[in-house]
Amino acid sequence: MSSLAISLIVCACVFGGAVFGMVLRSLLPEHHLSSETKDVVKLGAGLIGTMAALVLGLLVGSAKGSYDTQKNEVVDLAASAVMLDRTLAHFGPESDAARESLRRTTSGVIERLWSRSPSGQSTPPVVQQSGDSLYDQIHQLDAKSDEQRAAKAEAQNILSSLARTRFLLFAQSGSSISITLLSVVSFWLAAVFTSFGLFAPRNATVVATLLAAAMSVSGAVFLVLELDRPFTGMIRISDEPLRNAFEQLGH
Questions:
Q1: What's 117's DSSP letter?
Q2: Domain-wise residue ranges, the chain
Q3: Concatenated DSSP letters for 58-103?
Q4: pTM of the model
């Protein structure tokens, strides 16, 4: 289910809680709406609201941190790919096959990460095969001079770093937000809005205010889900660094 659909469901549930509170008010006996009852309900709603705000804030912070980490990893992957290509170019024409494998691997990574319907979190066969071929070709290079030996050693180090970053990105491409956790937070928020509706006057201004508040809360949920899906959502990490790097490979 898309982030927008989930956030709309949360908005409906939260605003529905406010409407339920308004309806419940007309059904309760008058002594259930006394000032003492109102104070207790306010205390309970304040406690639940505080818990919901803390958890929602932690979710936003965690999702933003994960998004920034993966964004930096994409930039690092692009830089490592260009550095590896330049290093192989300095080795000599014997590395042309390895440089071509690097281009195929980079192209496969771009296609995999920014696919709108990823087939899973595992590395696709085409990327895995190109990566294995690149590894074998670099290790089989016959270094005949000190310069070539130094270039080969540096290429092996860059390749290890590049492979680690690549597998990290594939491993992080899935969602890490628990639907159960979001459901609990949504229930808390619906309960808070029920308390709002229970004692709120029935007029257009109150309804509009509660609707705007429900939309704001669901907007926070939308941000959490979007930041947790940085390669397929609306708030996507740009593929420009890797595409720019790909254009420089082999030249």
A1: S
A2: 3-248
A3: HHHHHHHHHHHHHHHHHHHHHHHHHHHHHHHHHH-GGGHHHHHHHH
A4: 0.77
